[in-house]
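To assess whether the prediction recovers the assembly geometry, we first specified each molecular entity separately, as shown.
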Amino acid sequence: MGEIVRVVVDAMGGDNAPGEIVKGAVQAVTNHENIRVILTGKEDMIKAELSKYSYPQERIEIVHTETVIETAEPPVAAIRTKKDSSIVVGLTMVRHGEADAFVSAGSSGAVLVGGQAIVGRIKGIERPALAPLIPTKDGVSLLIDCGANVDARSSHLIQFARMGSIYMEDVLGIKNPRVGIVNIGAEEEKGNALVKETFPLLKQCSDLNFIGSVEARDIPEGVCDVIVCEAFVGNVILKLYEGVAGTLIGKIKGSMMQSLKTKIGALLVKPALKSTLKSFDATEYGGAPLLGLKGLVVKTHGSSKAKEVEHSIYQCVQFTEQRINEKIKEHITL
Amino acid sequence: MGEIVRVVVDAMGGDNAPGEIVKGAVQAVTNHENIRVILTGKEDMIKAELSKYSYPQERIEIVHTETVIETAEPPVAAIRTKKDSSIVVGLTMVRHGEADAFVSAGSSGAVLVGGQAIVGRIKGIERPALAPLIPTKDGVSLLIDCGANVDARSSHLIQFARMGSIYMEDVLGIKNPRVGIVNIGAEEEKGNALVKETFPLLKQCSDLNFIGSVEARDIPEGVCDVIVCEAFVGNVILKLYEGVAGTLIGKIKGSMMQSLKTKIGALLVKPALKSTLKSFDATEYGGAPLLGLKGLVVKTHGSSKAKEVEHSIYQCVQFTEQRINEKIKEHITL
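The predicted structure of the complete assembly is given in tokenized form:
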């Protein structure tokens, strides 16, 4: 058994809070001995949820907070004014070393802004990056950046590549991860000004396994492990993934309900199909870490259920045990 | 019957040239009386293909060209040096008014560069835009721009919105088409510098039915008819659409072959499923027009078969009959 890892979980964030969030925390401490969870949020609501389960009680603590930051609120103002919210209190605990990591399914904007403002950046990191895992044909790839860093510079992208590479190697155990930059063609001379400037700089990074340009068409095939792009493009990729898969699956389900014949066929293929579609569901892969901060902040999908929350907590353990932040610090001075 | 529309078709372009290209041309003139096709390419090869069919011979002409621009060739140099290629000769005929439109499944780069250099831009259009139709839940949307105009300015995007709107209204018959701008959130204050600058300008365009920001997640649901973005983002959207759908369909097919039970089920759902997947296949929707040129240039997918070539030719007829270029000219002076 390793050291105890202390994870603050925002019990009030997301569509299924606090029920599924609390359930995920209970599952995590039940299944892993070296996890302690601190739930931030309304104490009475959290207690009501916790009372449904039996679990190692000494490893879940509640820190009562009065307010909740809503998804629609402007994040900067929310972080500044709602000092007693589950997000601000959780992030402040990470800042003060009272916890190792913070997980939230709440407002993305507030988590991103709060992560930078409260936890703070690692020295030398110009911008932290939100880096979700996306499903590919036979595995996952890290998409970095999907955050709020629009209009990025090439130096940011280089740092994203380095942080993503460390994460994939040490958290996911992928040796010498392949790093690609999203581009509109395979050739080095293709691309917009940012990509053209960044490409040769990435080529020079001897610490990276840079494989060159990656076209969006090839991303789902899993051609690289770390997909580098600026946040606007990353956001489009992440959301379109979800959108195309969702619409297509909806159409497939519809077509299987067309007649008695297709309905019988659907019953026969359903179990196999279900597991396939599940493996292609981005929400299955825990949360997206905000890499480059002094502490770990993980944003999970707003629609997260207990299982995703549980997985996000395990991600935090892996991240902490592998000393990812120390490794990022070392690499950034390169 | 309307006026005869003269379409030059590059018989040498694409993975299935000249066989499928010639077949598509034959189908088009056979099914529609008011089409004349001029095939550019190696005369002996084209003649050999044509000899397989019976068709109204007076409506297919061959213009022999000696060279072919390959997909891998740098486009600017290719257009400059290969004056006797099927692409340069075809585009030159459009320029001189010897044809109304040009269709090619060959090198995208060469078609884009050649379109601008040889056919030329409509006065007032700063940049032409490549605008493919992409499948949505119950129809199609026009994605503008997917061309080579990286690092676009807001004035370009406004022109794209106007041209796309005219195209959807007059070629596809969609009344008052909904125009959206690709963004990373629904709110007006979201986005990168380009989107933030363009958003209020689009709002001011009283000739457009501007519905605001569109998140990538919602594109496949068909939330708008004209999807405005700069070419880098457009290229990512177009190719990711293809990639996610392709990989997901591959996985679904794989899961249906897992056992005898699933194989029987697959047989029962197959016909319904096939037509569903077909409706979500971007290659089904003919070619992408290069809007903003003095003549019509249409780029079809490199893997186009006869049917796509045929559809692209019909697109040209619709475009010409609806006097799209005249309408674009009028609108640009607004």
